[in-house]
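ARCHIVE CARD
CATEGORY: sequence design from structure
SOURCE FIELD: tokenized fold
FIELD CONTENT:
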């Protein structure tokens, strides 16, 4: 398994512009019903830990860690891998790094979220011990989202 280079996305431009664009590209490709603009990604980077994964200089995926809050002690860890790079261990590397980050942030539990049209992502989560806790469709959407929680 090759090592990935993981870069943290920050809100500062112009140095971060390429990372913001790459994170946006992966997100929008894997979650097309929830299109994010570059400004949306920059705003998210102020409240979530976002990373972009590269194999050499090739874009492989992105990840999100939503930290726990006073309303929810759970952190959300999401690893997204471009289809051409799945089943090669890259998602595992991103997930494990995100899991460690969530624990550093004091998460009491770990959750993830998968778009219902992504069976590979759902299998990935379930193989790591996540169980479904909720399925819902956002207003105006037709594809469900599946929330999962890591069983201890």
């Amino acid at each position: 398994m090759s090592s990935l280079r993981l870069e943290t996305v920050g809100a500062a431009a112009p140095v971060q512009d390429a990372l913001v664009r790459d994170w946006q590209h992966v997100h929008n490709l894997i979650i097309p019903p929830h299109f994010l603009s570059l400004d949306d990604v920059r705003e998210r980077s102020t409240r979530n830990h976002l990373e972009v994964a590269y194999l050499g200089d090739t874009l492989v995926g992105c990840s999100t860690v939503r930290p726990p809050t006073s309303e929810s002690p759970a952190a959300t860890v999401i690893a997204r891998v471009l289809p051409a790079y799945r089943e090669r261990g890259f998602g595992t590397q991103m997930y494990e790094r995100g899991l460690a980050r969530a624990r550093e942030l004091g998460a009491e539990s770990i959750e993830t979220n998968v778009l219902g049209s992504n069976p590979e992502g759902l299998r990935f989560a379930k193989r790591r011990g996540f169980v479904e806790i909720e399925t819902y469709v956002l207003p105006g959407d037709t594809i469900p989202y599946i929330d999962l929680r890591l069983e201890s």
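CARD ANNOTATION: The chain has four helices and seven strands. The chain has a mean pLDDT of 93.
SHELF: design records, drawer C
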